[in-house]
Amino acid sequence: MKVVAFERSVQGTGASRRLRNSGKTPGIIYGGAAEPKMIELDHNALWHALKKEAFHSSILELEVAGKSEQALLRAFQMHPFKPLVLHVDFQRVSANDKIHVKVPLHFMNQETAPGVKLGHGIVNHILNDLEVSCLPADLPEFIEVDLAAVELNQTVHLSDIKLPKGVTVITHGDDNPAVASISQPAGAVSEAAEGGEAAGETPAA
Question: Taking the domain 99-198, which CATH number applies?
Answer without folding.
Answer: 2.170.120.20
